[in-house]
Specification:
The protein has 293 residues and is mainly beta. 9% of the residues lie in helices and 65% in strands. It has one helix and 21 strands. Strands 1, 2, 3, 4, 5, 6, 7, 8, 9, 10, 11 and 12 form a twelve-stranded antiparallel β-sheet that branches.
């Protein structure tokens, strides 16, 4: 016997209300997708995935050999060949514990690769958010890993992507695997920002032992400069200045250096410049000059 129209309407409204109430839960559950060879969910809703595990959430992907995901606490525990890929960095680690909501986490025996070629590795790396990291037993370099020439090693460090700086404690600078400088405190600029750059060391017969400490100045977006005191034990102290400028027309660079050469017993200097401009009527002008005293 058919149900009265009022009852049928009430049942339909009830189903719609249930769907509306359940929809947010379904959407939140769908925010994190897990694919693996084997998936097991216990009575508390905790998922254990093994074999080619892939976890996706928004713009971040995590792959590992084994993953335990607790949706109630938004926690992912990953082990074995852990790789986390996001627009901000690529992280490789032996194990990791991450919060899928805040993206905070701790990685062990990890390396973080940034899009501009820099990398930071450590026995323990904590990601505070996408722009801030702390690490123990750190190794930092701006060289590609297969072409690494220098690095900075420290007992602990904090990387601030927002401010563009690396602050390290008990740090040493190594060139070609040889320790050249130790300092209890080291601050390194990681992007265009005024401050000290990496020191330069060299050994040779003509110049003796060389040491240089460049100071980088970036007072405006379209021009910058580098001032470098350059000490050579066989020649003397040389001052170097390089100024660079760019505009809608083109770019210019001027280099000036001066030294009281102990070996020759006289003052020497060099002035070098280069400019490249785009002119009307699809014309292009390149200018180079080099004067050596």
């Amino acid at each position: 016997m058919p149900l009265p129209r009022m009852i049928r309407t009430s049942l339909l409204v009830g189903r719609l209300l249930c769907m509306v109430c359940l929809f947010p839960m379904m959407a939140r559950a769908a925010d994190t997708d897990i694919v693996a060879d084997h998936l097991v969910r216990d009575k508390h809703g905790v998922v254990t995935a093994t074999g080619k595990v892939e976890v996706r959430r928004k713009d971040e992907k995590l792959t590992a050999d084994r993953v335990r995901y607790d949706p109630e606490h938004h926690q992912v525990d990953a082990k074995g060949h852990v790789v986390i890929v996001s627009p901000d960095a690529r992280i490789e680690a032996k194990s990791a514990r991450m919060d899928t909501e805040t993206k905070q986490g701790v990685m062990h025996h990890a390396t973080v690769y940034f899009p501009d070629g820099r990398s930071i590795q450590g026995e323990r790396i904590e990601r505070i958010d996408e722009l801030h990291y702390t690490t123990d037993e750190m190794v930092y370099t701006a060289c590609p890993m297969d072409q690494k020439v220098w690095d900075i090693r420290a007992s602990s460090a904090r990387l601030d992507q927002k401010e563009g700086k690396l602050v390290a404690r008990n740090a040493r600078f190594e060139f070609g695997g040889v320790p050249l400088l130790y300092t209890p405190y080291w601050q390194q600029a990681t992007r265009r920002k005024s401050g000290l750059l990496l020191p330069f060391f060299s050994f040779g017969k003509r110049r003796g032992t060389e040491w240089a400490l460049p100071l980088y100045l970036a007072p405006a977006p379209n021009w910058d400069a580098t001032i470098t005191p350059h000490l050579m034990t066989a020649r003397g102290l040389m001052g170097e200045l390089e100024v660079r400028h760019v505009s809608t027309v083109g770019k210019e660079k001027v280099y000036v250096t001066r030294i009281n050469d102990k070996k020759l017993g006289r003052m020497r200097s060099q002035l070098k410049g280069k400019a490249s401009w785009s002119l009307p009527a699809n014309m292009h002008l390149d200018v180079k000059a080099n004067h050596l005293s």
